[in-house]
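hey so i finally got around to running the thing on that chain from the lab meeting. sorry it took forever, my laptop kept dying and i had to restart like 3 times. anyway pasting the input first so we r on the same page abt which one it is
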Amino acid sequence: MGNPFKSLDTNPTGLVRNWLSVTPADGADNVGTDNVAIGLYITVAGDVTFTDVDGLDITVTVPANFILTCSVARVKATGTTATGIFALISA
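ok and heres what got predicted. didnt touch it at all, straight out
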């Protein structure tokens, strides 16, 4: 059986297809080729600055081993002190 949600523009299931390690960068999207992550998993506490799907830059302070549910196109180096960041890619 194929994926019945593949033709939809959004992910109604909330399932994560893959976790991609992220190296923060200011100049290029870094959550996988042509991806917008549905969230981030952060293993070491700190600030995370990211650009969302609408192009807005947002900074949040997160604890260790935290899942940040949000749309993410880029995790920025400037303003990010948290480490061990993984992009959650939609199923």
